[in-house]
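Reopening this one. Same input as before:
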Amino acid sequence: MKKEDYDLAWKYLDERDYDEAQKICDELLSQNKNDYKANYLSGHIALEQNNHKEALRLFLISEKHAQNENLLGFIKYWIGNIYNTRQYKKIEEFYDKEKAISYFKESMKYPFYPTSVINSLVDYEDEISKKIELYDIGINKFPDNPEFYLKKSYIYNNRIKDIQKYYEILQIGLDKTNSNSIKYLLGEYNYNRADFNSALDYFKEILNNDKRKRVSFAMNIAIANCYYKLEDYVKAREHYKRSEEFAEGSEFIYSLIGQIMSNFNEEPNTNFSNYFERLIFTDDIFEFYYEFIMFWIDDHHDLQLAFDAKNVLSTLTKISNKSFSEIQKNKYLLLKCIVLTACERYRELVLNLRKLVDNLNYDWIEKKLSNEYYNYLEQTIKNNGSLLQFISYLKSDLAKYPRLRIFLIQNSMGYIIDKLHSEKYYKEVVDLYNIFESKELDKINKWFDFAHSLKDQNHAEKAQHAYEIEIKNNPKSSAALNNLGVIFEENGDLEKAVFYFEKARSINQNEELYKRNLTRVSQLLSEKETKDRIFYDALDKLKYETDYAIEKLNNFISAAKKDETYDSGELPIPSWKFAQLISANSQIANLLKDQWINKGYIFDTGERDEYRVKIYSINPLLEEHLLEIKTRRLDDSWIRG
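Same output, byte for byte:
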């Protein structure tokens, strides 16, 4: 096979026509299975198709039979690259750190190897000095390549903080490479030192050398920034205007803001309506990112405007919009909202977005408002502000704007509820809970937060309902199970309380609270069951009582319930008072009292009131059963005539 065949195969590979490339390789390998060039090329085809195992096999064959050391540096790099877990999304099957480093170092022993070898080894170095050593090797090996000058200068600027050394490396790199990226960094260096004229020279040179649209946009902004700092507002406005024709998407706002700022400094009383007229209502306008412009020359760079968002906001508030048309006023508000977003002034942002929602019928404005409500809330809480206004605005908008209501439920309400609950604003959570319908609450899906807040605000029945839905949606929510158990305990349903405490405990056996709750309520249930047996046993004894005893029991219960100290079946009774309640002399009263305690009609609770008087409780089944006995005995008497 001729050299042209290899070249054609590489051409097919570059065009991602893997089948045609492989056909040529297969033909070459059919003549010589150890053809190192064909194996190397086949390895790349396999690699492009994510067949790393096959690629490794082919590269190893190529390494073994390579007859040209000029290719070995590349072969060893690619073998190391497969062993390097930092490539190919960490495929553990191939990862071998020691082999990767070994192959990368072997690669550098040959006359030719890719620059990626050095970058791969840098990734494994933690020490800054070792990284710099590798970059120096790269600079010596590839003196015309700006990559290693840029990376070495980055370390001195951002890690070591040696600005003078940073500058020196850039100057050497510029002399060797004439790189536009290095020119930009030198321009940025001079700009930051307030040497705006020197910065201008670099930025203008890049603009003349690199005609790419993205670079033209960034350099016109950079040049305009310099003129703005030099207070040459006419030239600043001119270049901000030029940048507009190269802007992509919402980035024209950089250009527009620059023109407004330049014009305001030049003639603050100008009619600015034409600037706002050029602002376009588009659904991607809020994707504008004020902080910096990203662009690529020989490397990635960031570029900031000459004024921060606070300066822009201050200027916008000084511009009179009285002569603006209604549409211009809305565009003014729109730009103000963009700048307020950059300033993180979320309360004002929400207020202005609400005005836009009132004035315009765009769903993307309502989406923006729905998202910013959360930021407004978070900032208010962080600054220890009052939530009254926040809740007022939110409730008003939920009622007023059906589409915004949908967006809030879809995008932000869950986060809002979660934040309010985590910060213990339970009343506010309940206020919002009461606004939504059941289907809306399901979409928000914050049933635990709702339940916990409802319980805190003494809405136990609603809390129970919310916990039951939370458990249906999330059966393994041990906290919800435990809290529902507490509600049942408070309602006196100890059996259900034990059931839910047991389920919570089975899910999370390490939670001491669940253990204590289960132990406590199990004990209470056991005591209740014991007491219930005593209550029912007492009823069996009641049917054998004389009419006289029945009469005295009726007298006692009737008089006890009328007593002002009676409360839920309990009352304090001093010894002398039994006779009064029973309507008998003290001797009979004391005798009956002892009998009734023994039979389970009444109980000594073991507690005393504030006057140290014993508190007694009445068997809760007694009164109803006494009425049955009285009715039955009257019927028997009537039958007997």
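So the earlier flakiness isn't reproducible anymore. For the record, Residues 194-343 form a domain with the Serine Threonine Protein Phosphatase 5, Tetratricopeptide repeat fold (CATH 1.25.40).
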